[in-house]
Q: What sequence folds into this?
């Protein structure tokens, strides 16, 4: 499997995801620069976390105009797999590849801590192999992670089983108290209608190595690779 990790000016989780894909999961990874016009034949594109273009205007609002995004949009339109983590998720919503928007956290603060996630569907690469009853402890680190969409979009996401993860407590209850940032219906990650574009605010790549004393994120990468083998 050949992954392409797109690096924007201000990306800061690019090396983390490259480490996990290459060293932990044993996959081939190419680094793609945001000004590139060529995806180098990758099978799967990852937009990593960070502060691309300093989060000016809105997180992801400038990055979505980077030349490579034209290629990513065409790749996704042909069914190519694209995953955005945190800032990557923000870029995907700004580019119109995923529905909704990421607003400022309701407490107006940057939040960096572990949260719990509950898988919501078996119909996505990221969640297909996860135990729906088993909460995953995964770090978040964002100022704009408050998922918002119009009521009809939220309804469509639910009707079409596009919600991949919701924030929950340690016991797996999806409650207002377990919602760190004000996201509607505790939504932490979604897929598109054609189920080839994925976005999530938490960082599984920061919880996928024994040295970090948390490997809950590994299950997400294992799920992806158990389905798409190349
Ligand atoms: N870790 C990240 O990707 C941060 C995303 C974005 N810069 C925010 O603060 O919302």
A:
């Amino acid at each position: 499997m050949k992954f392409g990790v797109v690096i924007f000016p201000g990306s800061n989780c690019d090396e983390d995801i490259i480490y996990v894909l290459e060293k932990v999961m044993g996959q081939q990874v190419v680094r793609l620069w945001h000004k590139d016009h060529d995806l180098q034949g990758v099978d799967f594109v990852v937009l990593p976390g960070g502060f691309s273009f300093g989060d000016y205007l809105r997180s992801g609002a400038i990055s979505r105009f980077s030349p490579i995004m034209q290629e990513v949009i065409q790749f996704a339109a042909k069914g190519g797999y694209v995953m955005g983590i945190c800032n990557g998720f923000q870029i995907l919503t700004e580019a119109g590849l995923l529905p909704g928007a990421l607003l400022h956290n309701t407490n107006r603060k940057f939040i960096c801590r572990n949260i719990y996630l509950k898988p919501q569907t078996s119909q996505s690469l990221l969640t297909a192999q996860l135990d729906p009853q088993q909460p995953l402890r995964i770090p978040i680190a964002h100022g704009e992670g408050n998922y918002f969409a119009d009521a009809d979009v939220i309804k469509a996401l639910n009707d079409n089983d596009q919600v991949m993860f919701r924030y929950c407590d340690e016991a797996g209850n999806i409650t207002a108290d377990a919602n760190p940032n004000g996201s509607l219906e505790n939504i932490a990650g979604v897929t598109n209608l054609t189920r080839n574009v994925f976005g999530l605010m938490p960082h599984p790549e920061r919880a996928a190595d024994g040295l970090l004393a948390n490997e809950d994120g590994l299950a997400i990468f294992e799920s992806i690779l158990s389905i798409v083998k190349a």
